[in-house]
């Protein structure tokens, strides 16, 4: 049994180590969350060496301890698969037409140029906006390290370049994470509701405030589940998620990282399951 554990952890360590090298070669050593694969690979090799050493020294454990160890692994795997299952199925969900708002969540901007991940989100949003000309788009994202302009500004420029009228684009350029993206975007929606109710004298303020806006959140597929959960905690009751394509090489990386993001936000009370 000890030798089997040693072999399994060795295989896991090799896989994690190899994937670490692939990520570095593809997107650089500064890739977010790269540390996880480094630690996972190192942990796999250390655990393999430990179990092999115990095997060589003929150290035996009571079968109860083997059972406990296997049970812990199965429980951890069960939680992981439960979360990942929700992430996966949310990524395949369809959205209805005629949303009042599309919220495009920000992602990295290199200088003034949108990254591949952000471009995928914007192209997906553009296709929806082209099909639904009455829908207003909110571009949400502040200015981070290495970004010459805010993500919101870069997104607005990109959409205008594809022919989306400036009047249909609202910007939110203060947020630094997904939680803030959705919180601040909700404020933009509420502010527009007040403005619209003042401009339209035929519509009562009560009617305007009681209306439930149909919102579509656009992000990459791996991110849809958490984005929808965070949106619901902000009071966006009628919200759907539209997934943009993931990066093929980094898909595994993103899905594993998202597991920890979901767990963190659920425990912090930031998102509804």
TrEMBL record:
DUF218 domain span: 100-240
Pfam families the record matches: DUF218
Biological process terms in GO annotation: Gram-negative-bacterium-type cell wall biogenesis; peptidoglycan metabolic process
Keywords: Membrane, Transmembrane, Transmembrane helix
GO cellular component terms, semicolon-separated: plasma membrane
Membrane-traversing stretches: 7-28, 34-54, 66-89
Protein name: Uncharacterized SAM-binding protein YcdF, DUF218 family
Protein's organism: Anaerocolumna jejuensis DSM 15929
């Amino acid at each position: 049994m000890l030798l089997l554990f040693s072999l399994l952890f060795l295989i896991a360590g090799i896989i994690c180590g190899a994937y670490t090298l692939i990520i570095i070669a593809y997107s650089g050593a500064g890739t977010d969350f790269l540390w996880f694969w480094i630690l996972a690979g190192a942990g796999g090799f250390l655990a393999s060496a430990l179990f092999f050493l115990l095997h060589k020294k003929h150290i035996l454990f009571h079968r109860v301890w083997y059972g406990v160890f296997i049970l812990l692994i199965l429980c951890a795997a069960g939680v992981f698969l439960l979360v990942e299952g929700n992430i996966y199925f949310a990524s395949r969900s369809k959205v209805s037409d005629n949303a009042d708002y599309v919220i495009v969540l920000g992602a990295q901007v290199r200088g003034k140029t949108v990254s591949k991940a952000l471009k995928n989100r914007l192209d997906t949003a553009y296709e929806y906006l082209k099909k639904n000309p009455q829908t207003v788009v909110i571009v949400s994202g502040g200015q981070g390290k290495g970004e010459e302009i805010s993500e919101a500004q870069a997104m607005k420029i990109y959409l205008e370049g594809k022919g989306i009228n400036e009047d249909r684009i609202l910007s939110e350029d203060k947020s630094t994470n997904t939680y803030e993206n959705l919180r601040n975007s909700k404020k933009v929606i509420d502010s527009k509701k007040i403005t619209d109710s003042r401009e339209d004298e035929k519509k009562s303020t009560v009617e305007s405030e009681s209306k439930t806006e149909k919102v579509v959140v656009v992000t990459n597929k791996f991110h849809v589940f958490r984005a929808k959960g965070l949106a619901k905690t902000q009071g966006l009751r009628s919200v759907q998620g539209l997934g943009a394509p993931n990066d093929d090489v980094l898909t595994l990386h993103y899905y594993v990282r998202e597991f920890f993001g979901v767990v963190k936000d659920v425990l912090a009370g930031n998102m509804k399951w």
